Amino acid sequence: MKKIYRFILLLFAWLLKILQFIYAGIKKAIRFANRKKRRAIPFYGFLLFVLYIFLLIQFSGDSKFDKTIDNKTLNDITQINPIQVNQIIKPKTVNEIVYAIKNTTGPISIGGGKYSMGGQTAFENSLHIDMRSFNKIVRIDTTKKQITVQVGIRWKDIQTVIDPLNLSIKIMQTYSNFTVGGAISVNCHGRYVGYGPIISSVLELKIITANGAIIIANRKVNQDVFYATIGGYGGIGVIAEATLQLVDNEKVERFHQVMPIEDYKAYFDKNIRNNDKVVFQNGNLYPPKYDKIMSISWEKTTRPLTDTDRLIDETQNYWLESNLSGVVSWGNSGKWIREYTIDPLYFIPKTVRWRNKEASYDVKELEPSSREKSTYVLQEYFIPVENIKSFIPKMSAIFQNNKVNVINVSLRHALPDHESYLSWANREVFAFVIYYKQGTNPEAKDHVKKWTLEMTDAILSENGTWYLPYQPHATVEQFQKGYPNSAKYFALKNKLDPEQRFTNKLLDKYNPYTTDNLAHQKKKIKEYFRAEEQTVLTVPEWYLVYNPKEYADYLKSGKNPSDFPFYKSIDEYWKLYDRSIKLTSKAYPENAEYKTMLQVIGVSMTMEYGLKILYENTTGRFFSLFAEDKISKQEEIIIDAQKAYSDFVYQTAWYEFEFLPWVKKVWSASDNSDCSTLRKWERTMLFTVEFSFKAFYSKLIEWGAKSSYETPSNLIYLIVSNSDTIKESKDLKIFKKGNGDKMIIAVTRWAIFTTEMKKLANQDVKIYEISGNDEIAVSTIMNKSQDLNLDGIKLLYQSSIVTDDGLKRNVYFMPVEQLLPFIKKAESENITVEHVYDY
C-alpha cells in the first residue's frame, strides 16, 4: 500500500508545503489580493480554509507522548549497516553466556566494539551477545610476559594495567579501542615489523560452543578449533578468554622518508625488513596519482623522550584531526594540501616516545562530525610483496575510473600465516589499507559495490586476497578463490554447529551449509522481507479502515449524521500518528517514505472531515430539523453504501471501490414514504457530491498506481513449526518445507491475515518469523474495565473508540512467537482481537 500512496504525494505536496509555510503564504497572498481587488474574496476564502485545516491538525494529536520501543538495531562505526536483532544480552560471566545459548534456539551473533564494517557482528532476529561487559583481566604472568583476559576487554584497558609493569602488547591494531575478542575473530594485524597476524601472539583460548560446552583450544589441544576460531568471525563459538604473549615496553624514535613508489620495495628490503630495531612501520601512498609514498618507521632508541606521556589520554580532543580529514576529503585539492602542507608540517619535529604511547591511538581522531549523508569506510588488500608494482597501477585505475574519494592508502608488511583456516596471508604480503569517503544513500552503496567487485578481480589477478571485516561485496566464487581453505573452516563449523546458530551477514553469505535451509530459501521469495517498524507505523493507516466502519455503524443505528464525532476522529488519527512516529524513532532507521505517506493521508482525511464539520454543523443541522423518525429509501441506500465501503476497504485498496453505481442506485430509487422531502434531497445531494468526487479521485489514484508501480503482493510469508495440523486453503498455502522442524507458509494479507492467525491460534503451531521479523503489533477492542496482561507483551498505548466511550482500543507489541498464544488468551477472555498489523 505504501507504493500506492507515493502517487498521492504528487497531488498533495503543494498542500503540505502551504501548511508548512502558512504564515508566509498568507502575507504574500494578502499583498497580492490587495493589488487584485476582484480576486480578494477567493484568495481570502482559500487562505482561511488552509488556515482552518492547519489549526485542526495543530490542535490534534499527542505531541506529549514520549514512549519508545527498545532499540535493538545494531550498527557499526560506518552507520550504513543497521541490523535488527531479537535480543541483546551483556554477560559478565561464562554461566550467563552458556545459559543464553542453551535457552534459545535461533541464530546467535557476537559483537564487541562494532568496528567491523559489513555486518560481521550481527544477524537479523538473532540473540546478540555484546561482550563489552565481559572485560576482566584473569591473570598476568610477569615472568613469562603473558596475560589472560576476558575478551570483551579493550586493548587500551590492558595497556593501562601492563604499562606500569613495563610490558607491552605484542601485536594489535593501530587503534586501542577494539576489543581483544574482535581482534582475534578477525585475526588482526598492525604496523609491527617482523610479525604477521595476531594469531602468532595468541597462546590459548577458552571457547563456548553451540551446545553450551566450554573447551580449551591451543596448538596442542583442540588444535583445529584453535586455528578455525582465530580469524573465524564468531562462527565457531564464543571466545570467552584468551592468553596472549606480551613483550617489553621500550622507547621508540620516529623516522620518515618520501620516495617514488617504484623504489619502495627495495627501500623496505634494505632498511626495514630485517632491521631488528624497527618496531612499527607503514608507508603512506599518496592519492590520487599513487606515485609517491612516505615511509614512517619507529625504531628502538636510547635517546631522551621528547614525549613523556606513557599513554594517550582518552579525554583528548580531536577537533583538529577531524577537520583536517575533512579538508583531505575535498577532492584532489585536499589531497595536494595533505601531501605538500599537512604532512610536511606534521613530521617536522623529532619524536621519541614510549612504545605503549604509540600503540594507544584513539579512533576518535578519525571520527567525522556527522555520518548522516557521508561516511568514512575501510577496505584492505593483501598483495604478495613481489607483485605490488603490477598491482598499484590496476588499483589506481579502478579508483580513478570510479572517482573514489580515497583519503589515504597505508601499506603495512606481514609475514605469512599458515595456521588460521581463513588466513589472509598464505605468503608474505603488503597490506594496502584503504581509507575512503562514500555517501550513505543506496546509489552510493551500489557504486561502492561495483568498484569493489572490480578491485577484487584485480586482487585475485595478483594472487592476493582482501580482508573480511569490511563490506562483504565479493561473490561466492571470488571468496572461494581468495580463501581456498574456507571449505575446511566451514566443514569444522558444521561439525561443531550443525544448526549454523553462530552467524552474521558475512558468514551467512559464504557458508555452503546454509544454502538449502529456510534462511536462504526465503531470500529467493520476492517481497518476503518487510520493514518491522511498519507494523507500528501502519496503525494510523488502518484507522482509515476502522473509522469508516464506525461511521457506517453510527448511521445504521439511526443516529443523526451531524452528531458523528468528526473532530474526535481527526484527533484520533493524529494521536495514532504521533505515537507511532515516537515509538519507532529510536528503535529503527527513519522510514521517511512511510512517514510522508501517513502525513499525506492524514491531511487528506483532515480536509474531508474538516469540510464535513463545517457542513454538518450548519446546513446539515438545519435540514436535520425536518428529519422524521422514518428515513427515505434514498437514505437507506446511502447507509448501505457507507457500510459496503467500510467492509470493502478491510481487504481491498479503497480506490478499487465502485462509487458511481451507488450514486446511480440512490437516484434510481423510488420513494413513496411520507418522510421529509427536504431531508431526503439534502442527504441525496451531499452523498452525490461526496461519492462523485471520490469516484473521480479514486480513478486518478488507480491510474497513477498502475502506471507507476507493480501490483503489490497480497501474500505474507511466515516461518512456522512443521505441523501436520496446518491445513491448506485458499488463503493459506504451505510454501516450502524445510529439512528440520520448520516450514514456510504463505498467507493472504490484510483482514484475511488476522482471520487466519485466529484459526492457527487453535492449532498446535508455533511461529518463528513473519516477513523476516520477530516482533509484531496487534490491536484489541475491549471494555474499559478489562485488562489483558501477559509476560513479554508490551502495551504500547490505549486508543479511543470515538463513537463508544465504554470501549477502548489497546495496541500491543509482542514477539511473533507469542502472537498465537496471545490471540488464544484474548479470545478466551471475550476480548476482540481487532487486527494483526502485517507490516
Describe the structure.
With 839 residues, the protein is an alpha+beta fold. The protein is built from 25 helices and 27 strands. The strands form six sheets. Strands 15-12-14-13-17-18-16-19 form an eight-stranded antiparallel beta sheet. Strands 6, 7, 8, 9, 10 and 11 form a six-stranded antiparallel beta sheet that branches. Helix 2 runs antiparallel to helix 3 (40-58) and helix 12 (388-401) packs antiparallel against helix 13 (442-461). It starts with a helix and ends with a strand.
Core attributes:
alpha+beta, single chain, 839 residues, elongated, 27 strands
Summarize the SSE layout with pairings.
Layout: H1 2-20, H2 22-35, H3 40-58, E1 73-74, E2 83-84, E3 87-89, H4 94-102, E4 108-111, E5 127-130, E6 137-141, E7 146-150, H5 155-162, E8 167-169, H6 180-185, E9 202-208, E10 214-218, H7 223-229, E11 238-248, E12 251-260, H8 264-271, E13 278-285, E14 292-300, H9 319-328, H10 332-346, E15 352-354, H11 355-358, E16 374-384, H12 388-401, E17 405-414, E18 429-439, H13 442-461, E19 465-466, H14 476-482, H15 486-496, H16 505-510, H17 518-521, H18 534-556, H19 566-584, H20 592-624, H21 633-648, H22 660-668, H23 677-708, E20 715-721, E21 732-737, E22 742-748, H24 751-760, E23 767-770, E24 775-783, E25 794-800, E26 807-815, H25 819-828, E27 832-837
Parallel strand pairs: 3-5, 4-5
Antiparallel strand pairs: 1-2, 6-7, 7-11, 8-11, 9-10, 9-11, 12-14, 12-15, 13-14, 13-17, 16-18, 16-19, 17-18, 20-22, 20-23, 21-22, 24-26, 24-27, 25-26
Helix pairs in contact: 1-20, 1-23, 2-3, 3-20, 9-10, 12-13, 18-19, 18-20, 18-21, 19-20, 21-22, 22-23
